[in-house]
Design a protein that fits this description.
single chain; alpha+beta; nine-stranded mixed barrel; three-stranded antiparallel sheet; 4 helices; 13 strands; 16% helix
């Protein structure tokens, strides 16, 4: 840039179906062969064809007591078909450490919601007991790109996609990262220190610096309610991110999460990003479920209480 920083500006996306956690049956297998990767790609393409096909008007009703999932989200999103590829490897998971590619949870997960439940509060006792995503307070991940909701249950291997699209803007003193999902904006201070005594924030307090062709960001002071079903966390959460420019159209995003209240060790993930096509744009993504569904959820719970 005109300030001598590596130019990371533009719209970036993660179009892969690779999950955050490695399927447990793969053990320590960090990568697929090209043939194995192609099988998964072909399967995703097949699912996409089925997703785009007209619905059967004679299909039966859903099963009694069945769970409503995110199928609607999977239906209107783009199907990610690629396998994340880093250093020539087709990765079996985004997590690369621990070696098994799994979240290293402690035996007992004691996030804020578990603490409230242990105090006798039920999961439908009030809006505070519902997750931040359900309340439309944030995108359901501690930071953009950390995790996407959805997955196999939606018929969409990658889940809900806008969480995968970001825009980066740089100037002399700040980096701004816009996540398309929830239209979330992070304003990150360069060469600064964390603001102590400022309270906890939904997306934490972030500071950054440049190192060679990379941007390094450290975030802490997260609200404990930020804990999600995809990645649990507490107010001790700290995230270190690195955005490394590989070429004009490729960037490697890696992050390490530390939270001694939730995890037995730190864990690290790597996500290859691609520059979005010039004819693709980011649009405002608004969440409405919290505007009306929350009252319906709580009303139904009160009826059940009676």
């Amino acid at each position: 840039t005109e300030h001598g920083y590596p130019n990371l500006q533009g719209n970036w996306t993660n179009p892969s179906q690779t999950p955050l956690q490695r399927p447990s049956g793969l053990g320590l297998q960090q990568s697929y062969t090209a043939e194995q990767a192609q099988v998964l790609i072909d399967r995703a393409l097949g699912l996409d064809d089925a997703r785009l096909a007209a619905l059967d008007p004679d299909r039966p009703a859903p099963p009694v007591g069945g769970r409503i999932d995110q199928q609607a989200d999977g239906n209107f999103e783009t199907m990610p078909t690629e396998i994340a590829r880093v250093n020539g490897e087709y990765r079996t998971s985004l997590i690369i450490d621990p070696p098994d590619g799994r979240l290293p949870y402690l035996t007992r997960i004691n996030d804020i919601y578990a603490q409230w439940r242990s105090q006798g509060f039920g999961e439908f006792d009030g809006p505070e007991m519902r997750g931040a995503l359900e309340r439309c307070l944030n995108p359901g991940a501690q930071l953009p790109l950390v995790s996407a909701f959805g997955g196999e249950a939606t018929g969409n291997p990658g889940g809900d996609n806008p969480v995968r699209n970001i825009q980066i803007v740089q100037n002399k003193d700040y980096v701004v990262i816009l996540s398309e999902y929830f239209s979330l904006v992070r304003i990150i201070r360069l060469d600064s220190e964390h603001l102590e005594g400022q309270g906890l924030k939904w997306m934490g307090d972030s500071i950054a610096y440049y190192e060679g062709s990379a941007l390094k960001i450290h975030s802490k002071n997260f609200r404990p309610e930020q804990s999600t079903g995809f990645v649990r966390s507490s107010d001790a959460l700290e995230i270190t991110e690195t955005f490394t420019l590989i070429s004009d159209n490729e960037m490697l995003f890696s992050y390490t999460i530390k939270d001694p209240n939730i995890f037995s060790q730190t864990f690290t993930a790597e996500i290859p990003l691609q520059r979005m096509s010039p004819d693709h744009r980011l649009y405002e993504y608004a969440c409405h479920e919290g505007n009306y569904s929350m009252t319906s959820i709580l009303r139904a719970a009160r009826l059940a209480d009676n």
